[in-house]
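Subject: for your reference before the review

Hello V.,

The reviewers asked for a structural picture of the protein, and I figured it would be easier to keep everything in one thread rather than splitting it across files. Below is the amino acid sequence we used in the manuscript, unchanged from the supplementary table.
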Amino acid sequence: MHALPKSSLLLMLLSFSITFAAQAQQTKASGGAVADAAQETLVVEAACGQCRLGLPGQSCDLAVRLNGQAYFVDGTTIDSHGDAHAKDGFCSAIRQAEVQGAVVDGRFKATYFHLLPEVAKGK
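And here is what came back from the structure prediction:
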């Protein structure tokens, strides 16, 4: 049996590591990298649950408002979508987002979350 040269083994390990890291980053950033065409996509209000949507808590956490009710979000985080304390951040403004998922046990379980660009305000 022939052994692989050390350089080939290292190259293989490096390739696997890079692939794994890239996949982990892609899904973490949006709660699901690609919308599921078979599932309904909703446009909702998204903001900090404590700062903007009246939910209880001691820290800043992402929440969405569906049908007039606010829910904390699982599947993505407030910091995955920019600086929450910036002028247009979730603690300063209520934004629009496209989402897929479901309310489970009083929380919105996001399988897809895409923050929409801010709409320019007319003068």
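For the response letter, the relevant points are probably these. The chain is about 20% helix and 30% strand. Strands lie at 42-48, 62-66, 69-74, 95-104, 107-115.

Happy to draft the paragraph if you're swamped.

O.
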